[in-house]
UniProtKB/TrEMBL annotation:
Pfam (any one): THF_DHG_CYH
Official protein name in the record: Bifunctional protein FolD
CDD domains listed in its UniProt record: NAD_bind_m-THF_DH_Cyclohyd (cd01080)
Residue ranges of every copy of the Tetrahydrofolate dehydrogenase/cyclohydrolase NAD(P)-binding domain listed in the record: 139-281
UniProt entry keywords in alphabetical sequence: Amino-acid biosynthesis, Histidine biosynthesis, Hydrolase, Methionine biosynthesis, Multifunctional enzyme, NADP, One-carbon metabolism, Oxidoreductase, Purine biosynthesis
Catalysis performed (reactions): (6R)-5,10-methylene-5,6,7,8-tetrahydrofolate + NADP(+) = (6R)-5,10-methenyltetrahydrofolate + NADPH; (6R)-5,10-methenyltetrahydrofolate + H2O = (6R)-10-formyltetrahydrofolate + H(+)
Subunit structure: Homodimer.
Segments passing through the bilayer: none
Source organism of the structure: Blautia stercoris
Gene: folD
Amino acid sequence: MAKRLLGKEVTAALNERIKADAEALKAKGVNPTLCIIRVGENESDISYERGATKRCETLGVACEKILLPEDVSQEELLATIDKVNKNDQIHGVLLFRPLPKHLDQSVIENALDPAKDVDCMTDGSMSGVFTGKNVGFPPCTPQACMEILDHYGIDCTGKKAVVVGRSLVVGKPAAMMLIKKNATVTVCHTRTVDMPSVVREADIVIVAAGRAGVVDDTYLRAGQVVIDVGINVNAEGKLCGDVDFEKAEPIVEAITPVPGGVGSVTTSVLVGHVVEAAKRKFA
C-alpha cells in the first residue's frame, strides 16, 4: 500500500513557520494583513473566505473584507483595488474569481499591484513563475503541491515528472515549479496521444485534469509519487480526486488523498504569501 502524503502534516509544519514569521514582523511594528475582496454571494467563495479568515486568525494575520454587490460597476471595483494598492497597511489581496460577466476580468485582475497579489491573479505574478524572478507570488494550489514534496523529502532533481492538465491555475505553473526543482517535465492534456503510457514513465505525477477518477491503474506503476489536485463529487455524493484512489493506492509508492491532501495546504500557503509580502516590503 502507498504511503499517504497527508496535508495536515504539511500544514502543521507550514503553520509553525508562518506564525513565527508573523510574530517577528509584529515585534518590528508590522501587522501582516490580508484583504479579501468578494463580489456577490457565491457559496464556494464564502466557504473559502471562511476558511481563510479562520486560518489568518490562527496564524496571527489580520484579515479585512470588502464585500461588493453582484452588480458592482467596473469603475467602483477598479477604484476599490486602487485604494488597497495604496494602503500600506494591506500586504496581500485575494479577489475571488470568476467575476460577474459584466466585468472585464482581465483588466480588473491586472489593476492589482503584483507585490500584493498573493494568489497569482496578475500577469506580473505569472511572469514571475515563468521567469523565476521574485515578482508577486505563484498560485496557491501548485505551491501547495511543492510544499508537500518538500515536506516529505521527495527530491525532484533528475526525476521525470508529468503534469496532467495545462491550465494557468495549476498545470502550467506546476510544470514551471517542477523545472525549478530540476525535474524533467512533460505536460499532458486532452490532445496527448496515449496518455497512460506517458504518465507511466513518470517518477512524479501531478494530476489537475478536472475530471473525477480520470487517472486509474492503467496510468500508473510501482515507485511513483502521485499528487492529486482534483476536487470532485462522485455519484455517491462524496468528495474525490482526479485519481482513482482505490486503484492507485495498491500500486504507487506515495499518494495524496482527497480530501485531506493538497486542498488542506492551500489556505496556509495563501496566508504564508501574505506574511512573505509583508517581509518583502519591510525587509
